[in-house]
Amino acid sequence: MDTEAVIFDLDGVLVHTDKYHYLAWKQLSDELGIYFDEEINRRLRGVSREQSLEIILENYNGKPFSDDEKKKMANKKNDIYRKYLSEMTPSDVKDEVRDTLHVLKERGYHIAVGSSSKNTGFILEKTDLLNEFEVVSDGTMITRTKPDPEVFLLASKLLSIAPSKCLVVEDADAGIDAGVAGGMKTAAYGEAVKSGKADYILDHFPDLLNICQ
Ligand code: B16
Ligand code: MG
């Protein structure tokens, strides 16, 4: 496989902020009296904050909310989420993740982040990951969220490496679909393993080193 670059999803791959997303959405849903559980939370993986709110509101049967009200709700969720993020430290990144990134770079691979999150910069800074990546493509730079390939295509463009030479590592089905739509190879990690849609499966993060020799 002539892979030259690896594009990493952030939440659920490099760090596990998915639990904070869950707690923040749960708090907002409880305050609004809307049913929310882990199963619904799984559908929020990889999709934007605004789309996540729309998914949560599928269980709301009251008077429709205005765009302004929805914006306030999304902001409120983000404030709760960022309080959790502000407690993060470099120890929130497993040693096996840092070690794998270093070996990939030693082997000559270019590495990038491709995340839907508008909090990507903040998370990378808190966990001391910012300087590990050649390129960061995130939710602040795109107009269409995964499963649209925009965030990964932008990473490929910023790296100046053709999509066919990029491998996307993802924990979300929406992210695997985005990688496929972008003409990239895909490796599933965590939740995304179950659907069997990816080219490769990572039972453990360092398994990546068997794919990228
Ligand atoms: P924010 P990823 C995604 O990150 C999360 O998986 C998803 O649950 C979240 O809604 C999305 O970021 C937007 O995050 O509210 O911080 O902008 O998996 O693409 O790294
Ligand atoms: Mg993810």
Descriptive keywords:
6-stranded parallel beta sheet; alpha/beta; DNA polymerase, domain 1; binds magnesium ion; 213 residues; binds 1,6-di-O-phosphono-beta-D-glucopyranose; Rossmann fold; 42% helix
Question: What do you see in this structure?
Answer:
With 213 residues, the protein is of the alpha/beta class. Helix content is 42%, strand content 12%. The chain has a 6-stranded parallel sheet. It is globular and about 55 Å long. The model has no long low-confidence stretch (mean pLDDT 96). Bound molecules: 1,6-di-O-phosphono-beta-D-glucopyranose (B16) and magnesium ion. Magnesium ion binds next to loops.
Question: What's the quick description here?
Answer:
The protein is an alpha/beta fold and 213 residues long. It has helices spanning 18-32, 38-42, 49-56, 67-85, 95-106, 120-126, 150-159, 173-181, 208-211, and strands at residues 5-8, 110-114, 135-137, 166-170, 185-189, 200-202.
Itemize the secondary structure elements and their pairings.
Elements: E1 5-8, H1 18-32, H2 38-42, H3 49-56, H4 67-85, H5 95-106, E2 110-114, H6 120-126, E3 135-137, H7 150-159, E4 166-170, H8 173-181, E5 185-189, E6 200-202, H9 208-211
Parallel strand pairs: 1-2, 1-4, 2-3, 4-5, 5-6
Helix pairs in contact: 1-4
Magnesium ion binds next to loops.
Across the major sheet, the strand order is: 3-2-1-4-5-6
The quaternary organization reads as single chain
What is the end-to-end distance? 9 Å
Which distinct ligands sit in these coordinates? 1,6-di-O-phosphono-beta-D-glucopyranose, magnesium ion
Task: Tell me what portion of residues adopts beta-strand conformation.
Answer: 5-15%
Largest sheet: 6 strands, parallel
Overall mean pLDDT stands at 96
Q: How are helices and strands ordered from N to C?
A: EHHHHHEHEHEHEEH
Instruction: Write down the CATH class of the largest domain.
Output: Alpha Beta
In the predicted model, the low-confidence regions spanning at least 5 consecutive residues are none
C-alpha Rg, in Å? 17 Å
Helix content: 40-55%
CATH homologous superfamily classification of the largest domain: HAD superfamily/HAD-like
How many β-strand stretches?
Answer: 6
CATH architecture of the largest domain: 3-Layer(aba) Sandwich
